[in-house]
Write a structure and sequence with these properties.
- The protein is an alpha/beta fold.
- Among the domains are: 37-157, Rossmann fold, CATH 3.40.50.2300; 161-168 and 178-411, Toxin ADP-ribosyltransferase, Chain A, domain 1, CATH 3.90.176; 436-532, Tetratricopeptide repeat domain (Serine Threonine Protein Phosphatase 5, Tetratricopeptide repeat, Alpha Horseshoe).
- The chain has 30 helices and 15 strands.
- The strands form 3 sheets. It has a 6-stranded parallel beta sheet, with helices on both faces. Strands 7-9-14-15-11-8 form a 6-stranded mixed beta sheet.
- The radius of gyration is 27 Å and the shape is globular.
Length: 727
């Protein structure tokens, strides 16, 4: 466990082709997905020269920034199965549709299906499947409906989190709190920063790469870059274009890169809402607003099962004072497979709500008289009642709540304190480390290094320490050691004013030497850190507990598990007394205790502690956090050694899923997980599957920025042995 330093028309969109036959595999364009939905087109005889193809592309261009084309059914099915974040719109020919639809209809991310065929009357099979929206031989009609449905889908996917109003959170709800908490922390820091015209240019340039050859969006992007200041931020936000779509998706999927890039825009919209709100709220009493939308059935079930709990909107929230307008939006989702039509009725008490809101009369892009009220980000309401309304619409009653005493608020505040003081860039760097966004953290600290005055030696020591910790986490131990030595050299010259900072550097150096299997130096530096902290800190200070934990790691490395366990338990006792109950450091303590117990032959007790660690991490961290993936791999290995291969496969596959969803893929960890699955499948005599995973292990280790040669040799040998078995 490391330490934070310091006070804690004609143009076409990009077309992706996926073919099973590699001879026909044309150029595949990888680009960052910046929308909440994608279009998949499956047709065995897709031809770009055809009239139907060209017309479809020109129409879909209005709202989709990319299309993925398939000629092979199985490849298409696998792609749909693996899609995690985006809603899928599927256009398919009649013959292939009859085979594919029964295989994929169950997937939640599949929103709508459109069957393009010469003789619609021959396809009676389509009546069995609710997600099929249209069967037609008129591509114009199909395209019009796809564009309309996609626009409604965007409205439905406003990012939300379900929170609890008490400390007794149930497990399903706990797991989705972290995105709300961390996005709020990032927002708070981004809103403190000062932005210039370069921020506009950077977003525009990024957006052009995300909408290549999409003439409609490229024209708007040019206009945004040139004329951003000519219009209000709200005008740009309410325009149906890349600004709204990119922001909505980045907050929904917790894409830190785009959230950071759009920081100036979020701040500008928020500031305008705040200015309008300051003039409105003085004369406003309680009032009611409405919002109509569709919601995925699982998300709606979460609301229905949490009466009295809380619903948080992570993005800006658009509502209307007009019940009829909101009902109309809800009706558009009524009867759609996989979704529930919802009408929110929200009672707003300006004396309770801490988030700004604004009436958009004559301020929005459309200038339509929708009596729109726009709330700023992270508005929280209490769920009062959920009941079925008329016309397949469910009515959800919400009301304002004072959110200062929520458990999630307390955990957020605790992590905010750990991030500490300093400039916005410095705190963003610390937050990125907490989220394991190491490349972004490094960029922030390199920026700090460039901008820090040469005579501010204490600041440089802190920056070197953080850069060292980043390199340590990335596995670059040589560079980590260089940074730590530079930090130590400065801090030792400035004692005693830098004592606690020096203890952090000593502690991190101890971790480094332990990882290098130099347990003597590891223990030496941890004892140096302990000596300082015992003099300077209270006996139950979390940093003192972290030192005990790190000493435990040294004894663990020396295979003196009983001594290690003593230190781990001492750590856990302090953490339980001083930290919120779902703090990530508690998960680390349970993990270390569990592994020590397993090493001592107490597998059942050890697995219980690993399960506690997993429970906390899934509550406190984003769902794609590498720490969850690493713990899945650890549990998977425990089951593999015990020859419980079914359980082992389950956890290793979950680890792979998380690694692939992370913003930065750790190919070393990913390749190891592929290798372990290959070995398990080999034991189960499933040689074909084993060979596939063995090949993935070889490919992944080759992509690692710092490949381990011994691992690469081991993976290649495993692959070749399986090839021999199957030859």
């Amino acid at each position: 466990m490391g330490n934070f330093s310091g006070t804690p028309n004609s143009a076409t969109p990009v077309i992706k082709r996926k073919y099973l036959n590699k001879k026909n595999n044309l150029k595949f364009c990888e680009q960052k997905i910046v929308q909440n939905f994608i279009l998949i087109w499956l047709d065995a005889s897709i031809g770009e020269a055809g009239k139907d193809f060209q017309y479809t592309i020109s129409q879909i261009n209005k709202i989709f920034n990319s299309i993925t084309l398939f000629t092979d059914l199985n490849t298409c099915r696998e792609f749909i199965e693996k899609t995690r974040y985006e809603q899928i719109f599927l256009l398919v020919s009649g013959r292939l549709g009859a085979e594919l639809v029964p295989l994929v209809h169950k997937y939640v991310r599949l929103d709508s299906i459109y069957v393009f065929c010469g003789e619609p009357e021959r396809h009676k099979w389509t009546k069995e499947w609710k997600k099929i929206k249209l069967v037609s031989n008129q591509i114009e009609t199909i395209c019009q409906l796809i564009v309309s449905d996609a626009a409604q889908c965007e409205q439905d996917l406003t990012p939300t989190s379900i929170l609890s109003s008490s400390d007794s959170l149930n497990q399903d709800l706990q797991q989705i709190n972290s995105s709300f908490m961390y996005s709020q922390l990032i927002k708070d820091i981004l809103f403190e920063m000062t932005y210039d015209e370069q921020s506009i240019d950077e977003l525009a340039n990024f957006s052009r790469k995300s909408y290549p050859r999409n003439s409609a969006q490229l024209k708007i992007i040019d206009e945004f870059q040139k004329d951003y200041r000519k219009h209000t931020p709200i005008w740009w936000y309410t325009r149906e274009c890349f600004t709204y779509r990119m922001l909505n998706r980045s907050l929904r999927t917790f894409d830190i890169t785009i959230i950071s890039m759009m920081g100036f825009f979020m701040k500008d919209v928020h500031q305008q809402i705040k200015e309008i709100h300051s003039k409105m709220s003085r004369r406003m009493g309680p009032f009611v607003v409405y919002r109509g939308q569709g919601m995925l059935n699982d998300e709606f079930t979460g609301i229905r099962n949490n009466i009295g709990g809380l619903l948080a909107f992570n993005s800006f929230l658009s509502t209307s004072e007009d019940l009829k307008i909101a009902t109309k939006f809800a009706q558009q989702s009524a009867g759609r497979a996989g979704k529930t039509a919802i009408l929110f009725e929200i009672e707003v008490d300006p004396t309770l709500i801490s988030i700004s809101f604004a009436s958009l009369n004559n301020l929005s892009y459309c200038n339509e008289k929708e009596k729109e009220i726009l709330f700023s980000m992270h508005t929280v309401f209490q769920i009062v009642q959920v009941k079925e309304n008329t016309g397949n619409i469910w009515k959800v009653n919400l009301k304002s709540v004072n959110n200062t005493d929520l458990q999630i608020t307390r955990l957020t505040e605790h992590i905010r304190q750990e991030i500490g003081e300093g400039s916005a860039i410095e705190r963003l760097g610390r937050l990125m480390i907490a989220l394991d966004e190491l490349e972004k953290a490094e960029a922030f600290y390199e920026l700090l290094r460039e901008s820090t005055p040469e005579n501010d030696k204490k600041a440089f020591a802190s920056i070197y320490n953080q850069l060292g910790y980043i390199k340590y986490k990335q596995g670059d131990y040589s560079k980590a050691q260089q940074f730590y030595e530079e930090a130590r050299r400065i801090q030792e010259k400035m004692r005693p004013s830098t004592d606690l900072d020096l203890a952090t550097t000593y502690s991190n150096m101890g971790l480094l030497y332990t990882s290098l299997n130099d347990t003597s130096n590891g223990l030496l530096y941890h004892q140096k850190a302990l000596e300082i902290r015992e003099k300077k800190l209270n006996v139950n200070h979390p940093d003192l507990a972290t030192t005990y934990n790190n000493i435990g790691l040294v004894y663990d490395q020396k295979q003196e598990f009983l001594t290690a366990l003593t230190y781990y338990e001492k750590t856990l006792k302090i953490y339980q007394q001083t930290l919120p109950e779902n703090h990530p450091w508690l998960a680390t303590s349970h993990k270390n205790i569990g592994l020590a117990q397993i090493s001592m032959g107490e597998r059942t007790t050890g697995l219980n502690n690993l399960s506690k660690a997993m429970e906390i991490r899934k509550i406190a961290l984003p769902s794609n956090h590498p720490s969850i993936a690493s713990l899945c791999a650890i549990i998977g290995e425990v089951y593999r050694v015990a020859e419980d291969y079914t359980s082992a496969l389950k956890f290793y596959e979950e680890a792979i899923d998380i690694e692939n969803r992370a913003s930065y893929v750790n190919y070393s960890s990913l390749s190891m997980a592929y290798y372990k699955i290959s070995r398990i499948l080999n034991e189960l005599k499933q040689y074909d599957k084993a060979l596939r995973y063995a090949e993935l292990a070889v490919q992944s280790v080759g992509k690692s920025s710092m490949p381990n040669n011994s691992d690469a040799i081991k993976y290649k040998k495993n692959f070749e042995e399986l090839q021999t078995k199957l030859s």
